[in-house]
Amino acid sequence: MLRYLEKLCVVSILGLIAVVFMREFFDLNFLNIIETIFLIFVIVTCIILAKGPAFYLSLLGLLTGHLLLYKYDMGFDIWLDGMTKNIPLAILFVMVPVLSIPLKQGGYLKVFNYYISKYRNRSSGLFLVLTGLVFSLGSLTNLGSIRITHDLVKEAKFPTKFLAKVYAVGFAASIAWSPYFGSVNLILHYTGVSFSRYVIFGLIYSFCILLAGNLLFYTDLTSKNEVRMRSKLNQKVRDDNKKIKQLVLNLVGLLATVIIGEKIFDFSNMMLLVGVIAVFYAALWAILIKKFTFFLQELKGYDKKILQVKNEIVFFISVGFFGVVLANTPLQNFIEKFFQSISGFSTFFLVEIIIIITALLSSIGIHQVITITALGLSLQPGVLGLSDLSFALTLLASWIVAMIVSPFAPFNIIAGGLLKESPFHIGFKWNRLFGILVVIFSGIYIIFVNSFI
User: Fold this and answer.
1) How far apart, in whole angstroms, are the C-alpha atoms of residue 59 and residue 321?
2) Residue 179 confidence (pLDDT)
3) Residue 55: CB partners within 8 Å, gap ≥ 6?
4) Secondary structure of residue 27 in the 3-state scheme
5) What is the separation of C-alpha 401 from the centre of its chain, rounded to a whole number of angstroms?
């Protein structure tokens, strides 16, 4: 029974993706009906198969959203708008992981062993190499970068605290800019900012986060000494700068393709464009490294990858629905009035308030996407004295800080599982200072950007 349910789930997801892309080219009424049918099947099957917090939060979001829909007598149009709001994000979760296929087949990861060994006696240099690795991989593979990096370095026996800091700094930096992240796409979608307009500011922000994390570690003498004392590093590795250059070129190529594609193609949502680029670029990458046969073999078993993101798919669809319904209730006016009442304070203070509120709510189990969806759909940037770009950066900073400190954030849960440590220990203790640093720096950076936009 479970096997058939999983097959129905995969077929429904693929059918929904196919219909969504067909609607980009054909304006046919019956496609709306088919999309709705597939969407219902996706939600039902994913809810049944979902486990853990994703199941409870998705169910809560859908039930609460429908109760509010009924209470305030909202129409079918709002229901459909809510249900379809985050479908492009769900598609992103399915299509972007295809990029990990040529990444693993190309032999790029083995090269990093050379650099890890090269800096074995220089803990600060080692931290920079590893955070750079997580940043590079994270920009393509999202949370998969943590698992890939951990598999790569686990034999080195690095201190747990050291790796927790490495993963947090590198991953936080990648969240700040990558178009292959749901966070960036979702926030740009809510604020109406194009990626080509955002990317320069996002890249600068991400490099600053990476630098801030490395500077913080540089001052942590205790952690640096632990790395020197306890690490067991392999020295018998070979340098292969050619592989590193290929990886960097592919990262640049992916970025350039998104920027150019946004100018050329007229997709209704940039997330759809990013999904298409991910698949086609991965295929081209596999051809260039002469691994296309292996690429096709991996795609045959891709149904397992789709099932791995079922929790994310139903969670973000339910949150999008809940957010749209919420934005059509009196709560929207309450949020606006609250921020209007404190609008006399400095813009820096308002930015910090948004970041801190999001992080605090996330730390007690309210996922940051819920708070960000409510704020993104309810607030006008002008109320805060911000441009739309600065508002997008504010919401993104909120997401990043919540990711760093919240024990309920997927990052800390995954890192805790790999490191065999409590997510509370990782978020609240080891990465607390980094989170505070990002809060303060983000406010300064956003105000600086806002002054020139």
Assistant:
1) 11
2) 84
3) 47, 311
4) coil
5) 13
* Burial per residue of 41-66, b for 16 or more beta-carbon CB atoms within 10 angstroms, e otherwise: bbbebbbebbeeebbebbeebbeebb
CA dihedral sign, ordered 117, 122, 125, 131: positive
Q: For the chain, count helices (H), then strands (E).
A: 26, 0
Quickly list DSSP for 319-346: HHHHHHHHTTSHHHHHHHHHHHHTTTS-
Q: Read off the pLDDT of residues 189-229 as tens digits, 9 standing for 90 and up.
A: 889 999 989 999 999 999 999 999 999 999 988 888 888 77
Q: For the chain, list residues with pLDDT below 50.
A: none
Chain length of the chain: 453
What separation, in Å, do the N-terminal and C-terminal C-alpha atoms of the chain show?
A: 56
pLDDT at 448: 96
Q: Residue 79: its pLDDT value, please?
A: 93
Round the CA-based radius of gyration of the chain to a whole number and report it. Answer: 22
Nearest-angstrom CA–CA distance, 234 and 163: 17
Which structure tokens are listed for 175?
A: 């969240």
CA proximity to 111, closest of 244, 232, 236: 244
Please report, to the nearest 10 degrees, the dihedral formed by the alpha carbons of residues 86, 350, 198, 279 taken in order: -30
- The continuous run of DSSP H or E covering 115 comes out as helix 108-118
Of residues 273, 101, 100, 266, the one with CA closest to residue 179: 273
How many other CB atoms are found less than 10 A from the CB of residue 380? Answer: 11
- Residues 57-83: tens digit of each pLDDT: 889 889 999 999 999 988 889 999 999
Predicted pLDDT of residue 230: 65
**Half-sphere CA count of 235, side-chain side, radius 13 A:** 2
Q: Where are the domains of the chain?
A: 2-95, 96-290, 327-453
**Burial of residue 236, with CB atoms counted within 10 A of its CB: 0-12 exposed, 13-18 middle, 19 or more buried:** exposed
300-303 CB contacts, 8 Å cutoff, 24+ apart: 302/98, 303/6, 303/7, 303/10
Could you please report the per-residue DSSP string of 269-301? SHHHHHHHHHHHHHHHHHHHTT-HHHHHHHHHT
pTM confidence score: 0.81
Six-digit token string for 70: 């009924």
Given a contact cutoff of 8 angstroms between Cβ atoms, the answer to whether 434 and 169 are in contact is: yes
Q: Which helix (H) or strand (E) holds 217?
A: helix 195-218
Contacts of 267 (CB under 8 A, 6+ apart): 24, 273, 276
